[in-house]
Amino acid sequence: MFTRDIGVDLGTANTLVCLKGKGIIMREPSVVAYDVRNDAVRAVGTEAKEMIGRTPGSIVAVRPLKDGVIADFDVTTAMLKRFIHQALKGSVFSRVRMVICIPAGVTEVESRAVYDAAKQAGAADIDLVEEPMAAAVGAGLPVWDAVGNMVVDIGGGTSEVAVISLGDIVTAQSIRVAGDKLDESIINYIRKKFNLLIGERTAEQIKIDIGSAKPYEGETTIEIKGRNLVDGLPKNILISSEEVRDAMADPISQILDTIRSTLEKAPPELSADIIDTGITLTGGGALLRGFAELIAEETGIPVTVAANPLDCVVLGTAKRLETDSGFDNYVFRRGKRFR
Questions:
Q1: Class of the CATH domain delimited by 142-177+250-307
Q2: Which architecture does CATH list for 179-249?
Q3: Predicted TM-score (pTM) of this structure
Q4: Structural domain boundaries in the chain
Q5: CA-CA distance, 179 to 14, in Å (whole number)?
Q6: What's the Cα-to-Cα distance from 210 to each of 10, 188, 289, 296, rounded to whole Å?
Q7: Could you read off the pLDDT of 232-272 as tens digits, one per residue?
Q8: In whole angstroms, what is the distance from residue 269 CA to residue 338 CA?
């Protein structure tokens, strides 16, 4: 009776937290700012993200997860601890049960690191769920039926592609090419073509404002600011939608190749189902203009963007917290649990 159930989508770009019976209560960037002089955490989430690229030498603003896995264990633990504290603010509950998502392609060591970080952050009981499974459940797909469901979850660090049937993953692939790689490709393109250096936040904003996977009506140009690599002075340039699309072509092509490869590995009966049920896109990458249409063109299969693509994974963890969710027979990696 003194247990609080929490679902966590521990993403490379953003962390979402839900409480059983209350839904999503927190949506914060996965960023921590800490003081290097005493290792004290100065800020977490949105406040810390505002500090990226603007901190003095004594303060470092970092993203402790890279490519979907923990890159800095201690900072990840501190971030999770702060998020749990905020989620349970004013609560009398002393025991925390946590359902936390990890990419389908992680190693045993990487999944153990997530478990240990959650444990040190204060969780008493921890369940690990593969992200594509949680995304499919959160998107409302009939994953418990004897029918093939295909989900493509494009997050910040990883793109997860999975075919699911009868409550488990039949075949899946995970590549470390997603939103961050799109931003990185924009930074590299602008540096090579314009001799201009821009930051991560600027690249992300360019992607959101005029980025696309296919040509679209109303394409435009925007002015961006950065540092001229020739003379070191601030400089403004104009960049077009077409140039941004060219910059992102390579990572988009890698994601398309992964989708094709997963389809090739699916059993024939499930492939036939997918032609009828289509592919469901989730994650922040699903919001890139024209991406769904491009995937449909390349595969010949109808593609649907989930109703709330950014929330699908954490909504799937919320379902895991329910007693009658259907998850009872699903255990990550068929029974492997850390203790």
A1: alpha beta
A2: Alpha-Beta Complex (3.90)
A3: 0.90
A4: 3-133+314-329, 142-177+250-307, 179-249
A5: 11
A6: 27, 17, 9, 21
A7: 999 999 999 999 999 999 999 999 999 999 999 999 999 99
A8: 35
